[in-house]
Amino acid sequence: MRKAALSLLFAFVALAVLGQTDFKEGVHYDIVSDKKSESPVVTEFFSLFCGHCFQFEPLIDTLVKALPSGVNFEKSHVDYIPRDNKPVSFGIVKAFVVMGDLGRQKELSEKFFTAIHLGKEPIDTESEIRQIFIESGVSADEFDRRYSSQEVVQRAEKMAALWVDRQISSVPTIVVNDKYKINMSALSNMEQLIALTKQLLKKP
């Protein structure tokens, strides 16, 4: 997480209109894969432990609403935060997968964001991850069954490997069509992020 990302977030809130469209590879975006996805997709790499991601969360809806029809939006949780607690850093990825399986990804993500960044609740163990699910109405038995299932573990491992493959060095970061990584700190406002995202969606 770079300090520059915080300035970007404040600039996004201001929604300054600069109208830049001359985006350059190596400056505004990087190529992180030889081939793009079969269908158009925009992926936000993030972490529920990331303060910048929490601040960016209301703004991501603006980007999603601006996407052309037929473009899928996905969120991918990284597993390097907290850096010194692997059970929790991977556990939160498993928890995010479980949220999706329950059909409550947005709702439960908000619960975690609020607990961590507003409630200042320490989440240092997997049992504390579990407790937030239980307090949100998920039974202990259902959480335990889903969280420990080999299928969830495998999907979480795949998600946890994705940020390395896409060369993600900070969050939040947007990747377009699995091929183009947007350099968030090179942009000044939401209009630029939307314009660049749409431009990259059209690239081969």
Which features would summarize this protein structure in a list?
204 residues; alpha+beta; Glutaredoxin; 2 domains; 5 strands
Please provide a written account of the structure.
By secondary structure, the chain is an alpha+beta fold. The chain has two domains: 1-78 and 170-204, Glutaredoxin (3-Layer(aba) Sandwich), CATH 3.40.30; 80-167, Glutaredoxin (3-Layer(aba) Sandwich), CATH 3.40.30. It has eight helices and five strands; from the N terminus they run H-E-E-H-E-H-H-H-H-H-E-E-H. It has helices spanning 3-14, 51-66, 86-101, 105-118, 126-135, 140-148, 150-165, 190-202; strands at residues 29-31, 41-46, 72-77, 173-176, 180-182. It has a five-stranded mixed beta sheet with strand order 1-5-4-2-3, with helices on both faces. Helix 2 (51-66) links the parallel strand 2 and strand 3. Helix 3 crosses helix 7.
